[in-house]
Amino acid sequence: MKKHIPNFITLLNLLSGLIACIYAFDDNILMAFIWVCIGIFFDYWDGFLARILQVKSELGLQLDSLADMVTSGVVPGLIIYKQLANIQETQGPYNLTPETYYMAIVPYIGFLITLGAAYRLAKFNIDTRQTDSFIGLPTPGNALFILSLPLIVSTTNSEAVISFLSNPYVLVIISVLSAYIMNAELPLFSLKIDPKNIGAYKLQLGFVAASILLLVVLHYLAIPLIILLYILLSIIKNMTAKKQIA
Hints:
The protein has helices spanning 5-25, 29-53, 58-91, 112-126, 139-155, 159-165, 168-183, 202-218, 222-245; strands at residues 134-135, 187-188. By secondary structure, the chain is mostly helical. Helix 2 (29-53) runs antiparallel to helix 5 (139-155).
């Protein structure tokens, strides 16, 4: 019976992603964000319980990726699609001439995020290098990054930030970079911490502390900054490790 517990938690992740999709279709970004966070919470606990109960299985691995595909792949792609489509409805086809009608396909570029997530998750399942760390930005981190953008727009008083994050060309660039960074050959440190050897995780603990501080001070604006900090610290860690080897 216990072998089914992690899989049940994984299915709750999938259910959370489906609910988030419904809210995303209705342009209720906040509720979509909340349900994605709930899904990511379940995503963490299914793996944790599988290790504790010693019931890790190939079925669980595949099911986990399928659930993540919805929660951290379909939802962020849908969010960018809706953002671009809404801009197109209010501003026209980005003030272009009738001859450039092909720009009507621009909103669908948001689904590059979904395609990138699918490729990353499939690669993750067969990549033995990612047992203790990550290569490329994990899909949950990328999903939080994407969903934070419209929330920042709706809560900030900065006209510059609103203008920047509401620019369709910026959203297109973010979509492309998002799909790339998930699959880039960029080693990123894991946030898993062994309580028995906590002194060896100064980087992780410092990152968590900085993230909490940023969230308290900057709220939604902190999320993309935290993701960028995570990538930057990983790059610095990799460069330091290479110098030590040399």
